[in-house]
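Exercise 7b. Backbone tokens:
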């Protein structure tokens, strides 16, 4: 099977980023991206650790006592297979998950939107369901999860591609000029 790849400046982008329709449906998935079962948490860039440490007091306000204790005793990040990761509890909940009306949400992001922090969330979370692979350069790809089937269904209704749905995260990671090239050259 041939996979088309587009080059936007020095970043390669797989075709499914343009062709797959996707819009999160939190009412159906309940924030599954923050609670996916795995021995690996969300990837972190090394510089994000310090940014999260600065935002930690504000984010802690939204966490339950168990998560606060866990972070105090175990920290919020780890290194596995030479990759920086956010820790997860029992290989499931991200340490920054709090629940609102049964939906898993990010305490870092809540602190950011409440103007208590300058750091929104790890870029890997902001780009989800896009994942960045490195094969001598960055390649953006869509990572499928069964928990995201409702997002694929809603994406057909909204007619948003993954690239359009992830606009904020892509602009944050690569800039508005790059994003403009992405949406204009990728079709």
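Sequence design result:
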């Amino acid at each position: 099977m041939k996979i088309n790849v587009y080059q936007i400046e020095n970043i390669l982008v797989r075709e499914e980023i343009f062709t797959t329709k996707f819009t999160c449906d939190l009412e159906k998935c309940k924030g599954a991206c923050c609670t996916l079962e795995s021995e690996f948490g969300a990837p972190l860039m090394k510089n994000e650790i310090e940014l999260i440490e600065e935002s930690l007091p504000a984010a802690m306000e939204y966490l339950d006592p168990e998560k606060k204790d866990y972070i105090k005793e175990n920290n919020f990040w780890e290194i596995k297979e030479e990759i920086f990761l956010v820790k997860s509890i029992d290989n499931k909940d991200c340490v920054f998950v709090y629940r609102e009306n049964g939906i898993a949400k990010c305490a870092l992001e809540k602190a950011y939107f409440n103007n208590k922090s300058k750091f929104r969330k790890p870029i890997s979370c902001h780009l989800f369901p896009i994942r960045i692979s490195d094969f001598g350069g960055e390649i953006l790809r869509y990572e499928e999860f069964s928990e995201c089937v409702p997002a694929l269904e809603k994406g057909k209704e909204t007619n948003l591609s993954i690239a359009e749905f992830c606009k904020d995260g892509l602009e944050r990671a690569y800039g508005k000029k790059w994003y403009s090239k992405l949406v204009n050259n990728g079709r």
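Instructor comment: The mean pLDDT is 93. The two ends are 20 Å apart (CA to CA).
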